[in-house]
Amino acid sequence: MQLLALRIPVDHPAFAGHFPGQPLLPGVALLAEVLEAVLADGALAQRLGPAPRLANVKFLAPVRPGAELAVELDASGRGLRFAVRDRGHGDRLAASGQFEGATP
């Protein structure tokens, strides 16, 4: 298992309009942050190839501005499983899912 750390900036542009007074990071923005961090690692990027796809995802808790996240990665099976935990909220599971490489 591999662990990546992510910090979601308070001024992340995705918070604009989502939602006034109760900002939360849209799921698609969270997935983009996770995928960007994964693809920054050469071995993981090679495993997923040039056109990774999302096999499944579950959003379980909101991610707020300034969140300190831990992304747990499991490459033991097919694709790359991930779990996103919010360190600032008792290690609460915010999202989980799996990326897969494009099939030839």
TrEMBL record:
Pfam families: ApeI-like. It comes from the Bacteria. InterPro entries: ApeI-like (IPR054545), Dehydrase_ECs4332_prd (IPR016962), HotDog_dom_sf (IPR029069). This is ApeI dehydratase-like domain-containing protein. Residues 4-88 form the ApeI dehydratase-like domain. Gene3D superfamilies: Hotdog Thioesterase.
